[in-house]
Amino acid sequence: MNILEERILKDGYILDENIIKVDSFLNHQLDIKFLSELADIIKDYFKDKKINKILTIEASGIALATMLSEKFDYAPVVFAKKQKNKNLGKDVFESHVKSFTTDKEYRVTVSKKFLSPDDNLLIVDDFLAEGNALKGLIAIAKQSGSNIEGIAVAVEKGFQEGGKIIRNEGHDLLSLAIIDSIENGEIKFK
Amino acid sequence: MNILEERILKDGYILDENIIKVDSFLNHQLDIKFLSELADIIKDYFKDKKINKILTIEASGIALATMLSEKFDYAPVVFAKKQKNKNLGKDVFESHVKSFTTDKEYRVTVSKKFLSPDDNLLIVDDFLAEGNALKGLIAIAKQSGSNIEGIAVAVEKGFQEGGKIIRNEGHDLLSLAIIDSIENGEIKFK
Fold first, then answer.
1. Gap between the Cα atoms of B86 and B109, Å rounded
2. N or C: which end of chain B has fewer CB within 10 A?
């Protein structure tokens, strides 16, 4: 059992059969020292890749992406924006994403200034369930001509389809904890 | 002229008389090494305060808050959420905030689990204009009984009222760069 699986069992809790909350350390309150340790594991896994940019999506992915920047020689972080911001300008890569947690569809954008074919990306997020957010980031990366060197998430819900779909597309996806099932209040990892 | 003022002149640009964009290093693409240097300045200013929690608001405040956590012995970061999330639960502190950039009003929440009278807060954000986001965070901090030890922002637009209002309430507010005017394409600092 790795440090994230241990932490989920210690501090995570189940809201219903589908939803596990890790808001005390990963996506509302943030334990930055712990995120740095997770970033070390991700860096070690992708150490042979020439990653020069970290791509994530607001808001929960930003802290982990920030710690990853430190591990990858301060590669810039770019975070995709979830709503149309009148200040963003029209010169954006964009995709549409359906949120699993809020059930709403939203537009995701990245300014064309910040992704190019010169970029070797590590795509990062906190959670992977149906994979909609990651699919949106992958679509944006492809529009930009960037190379996707790898994808890292903290928690994958293995009983949903996102991880399978993304791996089947040939992406090198690292999930630090894969939840196999949540049954009768018990979390089992793959 | 400090490092942020220099960087704004080098990489910032003016969208109109009121809006200055620093999206290449502060709030869309993030220069994490530079944010760490800004965090050092903030840490030095508040070094005599016993800060044990960093409070910010999604999304642009999170990276700077993350770097500040490192400077303050890995104090936990809590970021306020901008929309009602069905997974957040009802047990939240909340306020309502009007966005200067999108002109919409939104609800801001923090789970009651993560703020208490034991907390000595440093409140952080990237931008201060009318001060609406900070006022929302201050309201939430007050609801929780936390102590607000200080407030830090990267860029204050000194020609708008937010900074004045917050200082008049007696808060110790550090703005790393205060823009005095934007006229004829020229940025002047206070």
1. 12
2. N
